[in-house]
Amino acid sequence: MERVNSESGSDWEEGEGPDTEVTCPPQDQPHWRNVSAFWLLGLCNNFAYVVMLSAAHDILRTETNETVTVNVTNSSSSRYDCNQISTAAVLLADILPTLFIKFTAPFYIHLIPYNYRVSLCIVTAAGSFLIVSYSTQITVSLLGVVFASVSSGLGEVTFLSLTSYFHSNVVSYWSSGTGGAGILGALSYLGLTEVGLSPRNSLLVMLTIPVLLLISYFFLLLHPPSLPRWTRPTSPSRPRAPDHQPLIAGQSHDTTGGVFILGLSEKWNIIKSLLRYMIPLSIVYFAEYFINQGLFELIYFPDISMSHSEQYRWYQMLYQAGVFVSRSSLRCVTIRRIWILSLLQLCNAIFLLVGVSYLFLPSLGLPVIFLIILFEGLLGGAAYVNTFNNISLESKAEHKEFSLTAACVSDTLGISISGAIAIPVHNYFCGLR
């Protein structure tokens, strides 16, 4: 009898053919190389995205003369210290390509083998750092941000669907890695600029991240034999172990091992069953990114030693610290009612919006604002990891990969809407005299 280790990616034993009975040994824990790889994949996938948001305030202050950084503000005529362009412009450049990828991916992503997808993620991530670091114009910098968005969006769709080939626990490691990208990305950019490196050189240092992504996927991860790495999946010629069945974007399997594609009506029924998780997750991300890219820049303490740009970087770092802690908390705390998190995040957004409107936040003190931002990050990370954990546990095996791929549009949709709303809000406040 053949035994297939779903975590080691071992090949079929010699001499065993398509009529061999397939069994999988029970496993309580995934292989250490796979959990390490998925943590690093999460870290590398979100790193460029996070850094671009952390650098948003600097990107929008870049002038055509690359040797001079000019503080372009309306402080002389407005009650707020504002860039002429909202940081939400960077957010939209960082999220709209991702939104397009996630909306369309369930219908074509299964046609692209995994190795090609990951290779494109690596190239676009490296390109984003190079373009932004050498750019001397805002429009070119935003193009670099678009590259980061393509890398992150394609990577999230790819790696979340990839988890269906492995032990279910790898979802929590992936999520923790994405949280790690938040804190390490924001902290590394803050730290490098604080010690004297220019934003350009700080971004060049981060070219090590695409290299780490390459190593994590191609050399550290143990690929199961059924994973379509360089060729498109075809109908299997022999039975596969349950953990090795390719569930690419809406594929199901008949009892003989053949593959048939889910119809549109069946896909729609699956999506409808996911709405109880997708809608609350969208609300959570709408509220928190409205805060991050619409209000952070307007929460300014003028009479302290930190400059406005430094304050903005600290806000981003603390937010990402909260995200990292909560995305890594799945083994300690699980949450089923995601709507509670969305309600709390909306309360955060409303409170800070009122605070910005009436300019009473500085009277609360910087530590209080830091705590609110940390709490915001905790809510966002908890919503993300628990949403995908619940979907992974509740989905049928033959629907799991499609469900994870379809649901990952939720956070991106919320972020996109928040970015579109944050720009007129920014313009309104910065126009007040």
UniProtKB/TrEMBL annotation:
Coiled coil: none annotated. Keywords: Lysosome, Membrane, Transmembrane, Transmembrane helix, Transport. It is a multi-pass membrane protein. The keyword Transmembrane helix applies. Residues 10-19 have a biased composition (Acidic residues). Residues 1-28, 232-251 are annotated as: Disordered. GO terms for cellular component: endomembrane system; lysosomal membrane; lysosome. SUPFAM superfamilies: MFS general substrate transporter. One of its GO terms (biological process) is regulation of intracellular pH. InterPro entries: Battenin_disease_Cln3, Battenin_disease_Cln3_subgr, MFS_trans_sf. The chain crosses the membrane at residues 37-56, 88-109, 115-135, 142-166, 172-192, 204-222, 338-360, 366-386. It is found in: Endomembrane system; Lysosome membrane. Belongs to the battenin family. PANTHER family: BATTENIN (PTHR10981). This is Battenin. It comes from Xenopus laevis. The gene is cln3.L.
